[in-house]
Amino acid sequence: MRVPVVVNEIPAPSTAPCRTSPPGTTTIAAVRTALPAHRYAQDDLTEPIGDLCLGPGAERGVLRRLHASAGVRTRHLALPIERYADMGDFGRSNDAWVSVGLELGEEAVSGALRAAGLQPADVDLLVCTSITGIAAPSLDARLAGRLGLRPDVKRLPVFGLGCVAGAAGLARVHDYLRGHPHDTAVLLSVELCSLTLQQRDASRANLVAGALFGDGAAALVARGNADAGAATGTAGPSVVATRSHLYPGTERLLGWDIGASGFRVVIDAGVPAMVRDHFGRHARAFLAEHGLTTDDIGTWTCHPGGPKVLSAVADSLGLPGDALDASRHSLAAVGNMSSASVLHILETTWQDHQPEPGTWGLLTAMGPGFCSELVLLRW
Predict the structure, then answer these.
(1) What is the pTM of this model?
(2) What pLDDT does 12 receive?
């Protein structure tokens, strides 16, 4: 059965002047998000999620406070909410991840290629990331024929990076295109977080996940600097540089415990403190290497890990109150979509604000490891 989806059809900028990417950079040609059609107000999900996670007669005060304070107004779910009680085991949930993920992935990649003025046969590399399900053959292999990709397309399925994978995936695409400047690469994120929700699990981590996460897919098309802008005469932001950072001794801050029931979320309450204490120092050092400070950054594309994490990022960098509004708006509209969120924020920034040519941007996310990824952009 074909799953209905909602695709963010944001017109590709048509008035921006054509520009040439500097040597060593890659250019983002388009970004598109695809969302499941099952959209719910946060208030309408609180009690049904309580029915799934808590036993009969359990006290729901903590659950309701978490839902009220998550910063989420609406979310999209892979399935109608009444279907989740019938998932039963990891196998059924993972089957749903494959089915819905393929539909959303196809819509996101097709939309991004159309926006970039490219054909599926133009794609040389497909990077596909997800941390909410597993498959072999992987989603990218199953999508290749549906999308009409060439038989010799390079594929790289990625699992385990979690929320950081949108930023890290873009960074690795940039690494590839620096060595293949005539190529076109697609980054696809498919995250169906709702399918990992654990039934009859009243742990705070599971309740936080049930209040915060949403479902969706996003695809980004990038081109090497030899061909950037050739297809449409326009150009999105260029990736100038990237930086990865692992924080030693933090493996239990964020991730999964994987067992018979599937993916049981690990979210330590110490994540915001870790971000507040360390993230700003590393981000400032990265910017300084390029002769920049936080005052030079015109667009902030920060993964919305939650209200406390966003506040910690702003505090650690000394940012003004509105600097992370794009992240807060994304969190409110679609929830935390794990690795797809930074791509969604990048897309809406491109649509809503049209940064002036020459504007510097920083795209960043954090994930299991504990780790962070920084991507320096130039619009």
Answers:
(1) 0.91
(2) 41
Which distant-in-sequence residues (6+ apart) come within 8 Å of 278 by Cβ? 247, 316
Phi, psi of 99 (to 5 degrees): -65, -55
- Beta-carbon contacts of 128 under 8 Å, excluding residues fewer than 6 positions away, are 105, 138, 139, 140, 143, 155, 156, 157, 158, 188, 189, 190
Task: Select from 78, 80, 81 the least CA-distant residue to 97.
Answer: 78
CA distance 218 to 122: 19
Amino acid of residue 90: F
Number of Cβ within a 10 Å radius of residue 269: 11
| Rounded mean pLDDT for each run of 10 residues along the chain, 379 residues in total | 45 40 81 98 97 90 96 98 92 97 98 97 98 97 97 97 97 97 97 96 95 98 77 74 94 91 91 93 97 97 96 96 95 98 97 91 96 97
Q: What does the block give as tokens for 278?
A: 């360390």
The rounded distance, in Å, linking the Cα atoms of 233 and 211 is: 42
At 188 the pLDDT is 98
- Contact status, residue 242 vs residue 197, Cβ threshold 8 Å: no
Dihedral angle, C-alpha 266, 267, 270, 273, nearest 10 ° = 130
Angle between helix axes 204-212 and 61-69 (nearest 10 degrees) is: 40
Residue 23 confidence (pLDDT): 60
CB contact at 8 A, 112 and 31:
yes
Active-site positions read 163
